[in-house]
Amino acid sequence: MTQPDVQHLKQTTLPADALALLKRLIATPSLSREEDQTARHIEAFFAEKRIPFERLKNNVWARNRYFDPAKPTILLNSHHDTVKPNPSWTLNPFEPLVRDEKLFGLGSNDAGGCLVSLLTTFAWFYDRPDMGYNIVMAATAEEEISGRDGLERLLPDLPPISFAIVGEPTEMQLAIAEKGLLVLDCTAHGVSGHAARNEGENAIYKAIQDINRLITYQFPKVSPTLGAVKLSVTIINAGTQHNVVPDTCMFTIDVRVTEQYTLEEVIETIRATIQSDVKPRSIRLKPSSIPADHPIVQAGLALGRHTYGSPTTSDQAVLNCPSLKCGPGHSGRSHSADEFIYLREITEGITDYIQMLEQVI
């Protein structure tokens, strides 16, 4: 994309349309599983641009005008659900407020700025007849709760995806890897007895032994971008009353998995390391990555951006293709009181997305 093209973008209504849409999204409560009305705003955006769209539950998606099944497809994706407002808000979370070159409001940073920037980018490319790739834009639901009726539900209806850009606040830096998430519910078994006598086998002590094994265990393969697999025991529960030796002790492990392992490999390793029963809650939220030499990553590097590994999960976790997490805004503002995004970040997001894609398509 040449500099005159960037100037042309600024002369269009697209940046202003993106900001106007973001204000409408902020003003419309869209907690996870309650995104019906924000989905309608996104439908209206497509309709105003005369772009045909489809909707599945609260997921809204569209294909470029000259979609060709013989060409590879790029997915642009971000979410329009939000968490509940932090109790420490001093502003009205549902009132879009522009002050000091910032737009305040729930979801402004996570991930409204990313979403409207990607929608605008898609509109920019929609009518292009000369692209070597198709582009699909998907505005999806339930990301904040890792729900099954968001992107995961939509994927079977989409064409095969060559690679994806997932819009999350990264300051437009290039998250080329993201940790997956495993939650394991574990149960140590003992034998109950009276605490006053030398009876029973205390399941708490067995759980402690297992937890100590986990504290010292190190997965041998370390990711160059994400580091080591991280285990954290976060919940423990046992016993019914003070004078009964407990026969079960349950504890929960939060495991952040790198691209060096499959979720199944991690589960089997932990089962072989401890004596307690191990039951995964799901194996849906996989680690994800994209090669550092992928053209879309190289395009971002050419703009002066840098690569890194992200410890947090996103909708990348349900994709089965290379994916790049990248978007305007700052991760530290997500889920915080008086959430905001700088107005300039939205413009930067649009221009960076367009310039990166121009180098690929």
Q: How would you explain this protein's 3D organization?
A:
There is one protein chain. With 361 residues, this protein is of the alpha+beta class. It has nine helices and 18 strands. The chain has helices at 3-11, 14-26, 36-48, 108-125, 151-154, 203-216, 263-273, 295-302, 343-358; strands spanning 54-56, 59-63, 73-79, 97-99, 102-104, 134-140, 163-166, 174-178, 180-189, 193-194, 230-238, 244-245, 248-257, 277-280, 288-289, 307-310, 323-325, 340-342. The strands form five sheets. Strands 1-2-6-3-7-17 form a six-stranded mixed sheet. Strands 11-13-9-14 form a four-stranded antiparallel sheet. It has a three-stranded antiparallel sheet with strand order 4-5-18. Helix 2 runs antiparallel to helix 3 and helix 2 packs antiparallel against helix 4 (108-125). The chain starts with a helix and ends with a helix. The model has no long low-confidence stretch (mean pLDDT 95).
Characteristic key phrases:
361 residues; alpha+beta; 4-stranded antiparallel beta sheet; 9 helices; 18 strands
Write the layout of secondary structure elements.
Blueprint: H1 3-11, H2 14-26, H3 36-48, E1 54-56, E2 59-63, E3 73-79, E4 97-99, E5 102-104, H4 108-125, E6 134-140, H5 151-154, E7 163-166, E8 174-178, E9 180-189, E10 193-194, H6 203-216, E11 230-238, E12 244-245, E13 248-257, H7 263-273, E14 277-280, E15 288-289, H8 295-302, E16 307-310, E17 323-325, E18 340-342, H9 343-358
Parallel strand pairs: 3-6, 3-7, 7-17, 8-16
Antiparallel strand pairs: 1-2, 2-6, 4-5, 5-18, 8-15, 9-13, 9-14, 10-12, 11-13
Helix pairs in contact: 2-3, 2-4, 4-9, 8-9
